[in-house]
Amino acid sequence: MSELNKIVLKIISKGKGILAADESNGTMTxxxxxVNVNSTPENRLLFRETLFSSESMKDCIGGVILxxxxxxxxxxxxxxxPDLISSSGAVPGIKVDTGAKDLANSTEEKITEGLDGLRExxxxxxxxxxxxxxxxxxxxxSEKYPSKLAIHSNAEALAxxxxxxxxxKMVPIVEPELLMDGDHSAEICFxxxxxxxxxxxxxxxxxxxxxxxxxxxxxxILAGDQSKNxxxxxxxxxxxxxxxxxxxxxxxxxxxxxxxxxxxxEATENLDLINKNNNTNxxxxxxxxxxxxxxxxxxxxxNLKDVEATQITFNHRAKMCSLAARGKWSxxxxxx
Length: 336
Ligand code: 13P
Fold this sequence. Notes:
alpha/beta; TIM Barrel; two-stranded antiparallel sheet; binds 1,3-dihydroxyacetonephosphate
């Protein structure tokens, strides 16, 4: 087993998943504003430190994706954030893309940037304790999108990123996210997601990326949030499994879904059904941002100093996601 494959398994096996706490300062400011909290470096640290020192980190969270500001922060007790995460047995990770910008000649679409100087930044993050990384390509779905241009240019960037990350002995999370925004059907989501993922793997192979040392972070197959033709949860799980089974090479050890705007319960229930029906050899788990943090953020905003209340809320959510990663979640356990 390669060193990279060992890191992958440490992060996603045994019912563990990933806490995506890599919101940029801009996104985090939006999240904090929504619960009437000032977005200062101290508050951002306090919320994240509260989550990272929760009991559920030991059994439910195999990796945490951080943002540049957070990986360099030190807790009140003088421990660095990567050390705090490692002390619970989880692996510290880092978002390394620098965001999505307008794509020239298809300006309604985005291209993710961050390749310039990436090799040097990766060395710095490795020294700070990171052992895995994330890069997100983002695609909108409509009749004409994603365009061939967006599909190929984002896949090329994802592959160049992944190759550089492995060169620096870290595991790349490869995240091609097709957005839920819009009125498209689940069938269109299925077709476009399959196409995007297939092209991503063509480019990953072209760039000689070791597929046993990556984690794929895709969206689930869902109808658009404005669609009148929603599909059932059972269909979501079946279509998602069918799509991944036919487009992801078998060397890939695991798939960690993004929540992408689903509610906490939806994201948990869908993952649970995916695992109950999992007829593939892939580990299927979570790499959730909002679907792990939403309730905890609300609880925390009531009293920023009430560490216990925030951790109780977070522990419950993490435990439910971990049950779902093993296909063992139920409504009864959710409401217990
Ligand atoms: P959500 O689960 O909130 O979609 O965030 C996951 C993520 O990391 C998106 O890049």
